[in-house]
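ugh ok fine here u go
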Amino acid sequence: MAEGALIRVEGLHYTYDAEGQSPIVALRGIDLAVRRGEYLVLLGHNGSGKSTLARCLNGLLRPTAGDVWVEGMNTREERTLVAVRAAVGMVFQNPDNQFISTVVEEEVAFGPENLGLPPDDLRARVDAALAQVGLAGERHRDPRTLSAGLKARLAIASILAMRPHCLVLDESTVLLDPAARQGILDLVARLHAEGLTIIAITHNMSEALR
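structure:
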């Protein structure tokens, strides 16, 4: 397994309801190294464990067996989870499930605000993230009034404001129309060109071949 990788996965197993009467094994013995600056696509049919793996990469799920390391931090350790989730940001299939604020700029500010940033630094992060995704003009809107494509951009902006080293996209284009989907793919390609590590999880071969 590559030393110095941004993310290292070693012997990862994950079982849902592991101590219950009906355990479901989702991952068996996964080894993976993600290097800084990579654009990695994880392909697989529905139910193959892609989303489970994604959630293990930033500590939303912790291994039943094996280990996940993010910048040297083990996701098994409670004290590392805030830093792990700041380093590896995740955008889900339905952005509505991520939103907690009723104003776009407040949604983007929520994560970095919890880091205790000074007001000027917080404002700079929000402004930069909104500009990166093309939402500067929508900052005062209610996220619920945005189109599906703009909601996806807002979800990405909320992650970018945390200054992550890796962006994980878990089927994040599946609910979008072709134009909005292309816009998100182009945005992600630009973020990768700027140096952000990307992990895209999909069952769409055309996205993997971009």
